[in-house]
Amino acid sequence: MLMSIDFDSYPVTSARFIFLIDDVPIGAFNEVSGLGAQIDVVEIPEGGQNEFVHQRPNGITWSNITLKRGVTHSEGLYQWLKEVSGDYYSANDDKFRYKHCALLALDADRWPVREWTIMEALPVRWSGPTLSADGSDVAMEELEIAHHGLHTSDELMM
Fold this sequence. Notes:
The chain is mainly beta. 6% of the residues lie in helices and 47% in strands.
């Protein structure tokens, strides 16, 4: 007996991600980590009871997102870091601003299947490749961004 297989329930492969800054594609990435959040809680002891402590939500902490890819000719990630690393404490500096970013997960045919919108992103760390004349590893660059929240869409984008 032939079984029906629901291919929509299979997970998206992790090797195809596109990163956009202000709706401009910056590049494809091999690895993305840090898509996460934690609800902060305040502990309130129960009056007269020692059996438990109430835990109430008190905000959310968003994890920094790290993007890794092989080095390409594009310098978009490094340029974004340079843009915000200037004297942004100066009252006359209008260059610094948060960016709205998006991360697209693609299927095997390279169609978007999920999108994460990253609100008010700010690059906080960039690292270039480790270079070695006797190595054969792919030269990788990495960018870490802080942000003010994520929104996700699982609607198929056609």
